[in-house]
Specification:
Blueprint (H helix, E strand, L loop, with lengths): L8 E12 L2 E7 L15 E6 L8 E6 L10 E6 L5 H9 L5 E8 L11 E6 L3 H14 L4 E7 L8 H10 L4 E7 H4 L4 H10 L4 E5 L2 H14 L6 E3 L24 E8 L2 E8 L4 H7 L17 E6 L2 E3 L7 H5 L2 E3 L3 E3 L3 E6 L1
Parallel strand pairs: 7-8, 7-10, 8-9, 10-11, 12-18
Antiparallel strand pairs: 1-2, 1-6, 2-5, 3-4, 3-6, 12-13, 14-16, 14-18, 15-17
Helix pairs in contact: 5-6
The structure holds FE2/S2 (inorganic) cluster (FES).
InterPro entries: 2Fe-2S_ferredoxin-like_sf, 2Fe-2S_ferredoxin-type, 2Fe2S_fd_BS, Beta-grasp_dom_sf, Cbr1-like_FAD-bd_dom, FAD-bd_FR_type, Flavoprot_Pyr_Nucl_cyt_Rdtase, FNR_nucleotide-bd
GO molecular function: 2 iron, 2 sulfur cluster binding; flavin adenine dinucleotide binding; metal ion binding; monooxygenase activity
Organism: Nocardia fluminea
Length: 347
């Protein structure tokens, strides 16, 4: 039987930590019977259901885990207010110890394959949240060398500043911390980033921050010659659909054309007929299975699977790069079969 790992769970907030004037960390207590469901790798995210208010419908929002599975027992996400953002403002204004929140289990693939790798991590603003999770795990579990470039508007807006400076002191041989304040030096510039990337060409890169920052880093990395597959960027889209809606199982097919599907999930194997106009997530839900997914819009990466044999095409892909696709990765929520037989595996 397939696991129910993507089903929403109710978690209790164990504490709320004010990180800066407009950012809070929300810590969740995970009951022992849900430890396996909420196991995660550094860099992954949680999807939270934010209650509606007045005429406002509930919304779902993805937030990176700032905790590390190697250094903390509880899970934490860190949320920064965004101007006009309903989800972040609701959380910053209302969340408190004891609040019960509906949460989808961790997902995402912005995570190092090897914690021993030498890495360059670039974060701007609240983009530090998945990055600090990776740093904590890499320092404790790995033996690689890390450089963190961390840009913020001003000294007051730096999230985890003290923690990061402490880690840099504790691991002076392994963590170089470069802090950049826009109030003193303006926005991070191409020349500075080029110098940094040129000095560490063969490392793995992890980048998270506003779109303009990530675009600049991506462009610089390309010009400096960082191998495409070494550059990992965390991209969050606003969710249009509701990933907490579990009543989406039956999606009618309008075609008689079918492929043969062999699917592996959590060590189980199933063989199914796959109507060629339904996505892989839809056909699995129709058949009563529970594949991993969150946004169902091709924007989060929660549903990544790997093609072992045959081929599938994606309707939308805002997550995977050419190298991921070359290696067989596909977004199951956007995947339609091309060949008559497809073998895929999750996880
Ligand atoms: S569920 Fe988000 S990309 Fe497929």
């Amino acid at each position: 039987m397939f696991s129910k790992k993507n089903m929403p769970c109710e978690l209790t907030v164990s504490r709320v930590v004010q990180e800066t004037q407009d950012a809070v960390s929300i810590w969740f207590e995970v009951p022992e019977h849900q430890w396996a469901t909420f196991s995660y790798t550094p860099g992954q995210f949680l999807t939270l259901r934010i209650p509606g208010s007045g005429e406002r419908e509930p919304v779902a929002r993805c937030y990176s885990l700032s905790s590390s599975p190697h250094t903390e027992d509880e899970l934490a996400v860190t949320v920064k207010r965004t101007a006009g953002g309903y989800g972040s403002n609701w959380l910053c204004d209302n969340i408190a110890t004891g609040t019960i929140v509906s949460v989808l289990p961790p997902s995402g693939h912005f995570t190092p394959q090897d914690l021993n790798s030498d890495m360059v991590l670039l974060a701007a603003g609240s983009g530090i949240t998945p990055i600090i999770s990776i740093i904590k795990s890499a320092l404790l579990e790995g033996d690689g060398h890390l450089v963190l470039f961390y840009a913020n508007q001003d000294a007051e807006s730096v999230i985890f500043g003290e923690d990061l400076r402490y880690m840099a002191k504790q691991f002076p041989e392994r963590l170089i911390l470069i802090e950049w304040l826009e109030s003193e030096r303006g926005l991070p510039d191409r020349e500075t980033l080029s110098e940094l990337c040129s000095a560490y060409k063969n490392r793995m890169y992890f980048v998270c921050g506003p779109a303009a920052f990530m675009d600049l880093v991506g462009d610089v990395a390309h010009h400096v010659g960082i191998p495409h597959g070494n550059l990992h960027r965390e991209i969050f889209q606003s969710l249009r659909s509701d990933p907490f809606d579990t009543e989406i199982g039956v999606k009618q097919s309008m075609t008689t054309e079918q492929a043969r599907l062999v699917v592996y999930l959590d060590g189980d194997r199933a063989e199914l007929q796959w109507p060629k106009d339904l996505t892989l997530v839809e056909v699995l839900l129709n058949e009563g299975f529970s594949p991993p997914y969150s946004c169902r819009e091709g924007g989060c990466g929660a549903c990544v699977c790997k093609v072992i044999d045959g081929d599938i095409q994606m309707r939308v892909n805002d997550v995977l790069d050419e190298d991921d696709i070359e290696e067989g990765d596909r977004l199951a929520c956007q995947s339609l079969p091309i060949t008559d037989t497809v073998i895929v595996t999750f996880g």
